[in-house]
Amino acid sequence: MVLIMIFGFLLTPDRRITEKLLGDRLRGGRIRCPACDWQPQPHDRWCCAPGCGEVWNTFETRGTCPGCLKHWTHTACHRCDTWSPHEAWYEETD
Ligand SMILES: [Zn+2]
Ligand SMILES: [Zn+2]
What is the model's pTM? Predict the structure, then answer.
């Protein structure tokens, strides 16, 4: 019984995305435009418009503007200008 509880604890996945992990994901190319496969880099920036005008890397906050906390469900590609669902940018890793 105790063993089962320990294994259950060990197997619980930690789904929080740290900044380091985000950097690894960006460098590893596991975030890309669903339409043209363009891969955003850590230095790429998006603008909250229409909105508060904040400029930031939307993948650092998973689509949430740090200025006004607006959640952007779609993200525009810098290469092909296609708006795709933010979650669709994250490549399946399994
Ligand atoms: Zn694109
Ligand atoms: Zn904003």
Answer: 0.69
What tokens does 90 get? 């994250």
Instruction: Tell how far the Cα of 6 is from the centroid of ligand 1, in angstroms.
Output: 45
What is the C-alpha separation between 48 and 30, in angstroms, rounded?
24
Q: For residues 23 and 16, which has the higher predicted lDDT (pLDDT)?
A: 23
Got the DSSP string for 3-51? HHHHHHHHH-------HHHHHHHHHHT-B--TTT-----TT--EE-TTT
CA 11 – ligand 1 centroid, Å: 36
Q: Which residues contact 60 (CB under 8 A, 6 or more apart)?
A: 19, 22, 42
Element (H, E) at 2: helix 2-11
Q: From the CA of 68, which ligand is nearest?
A: 2
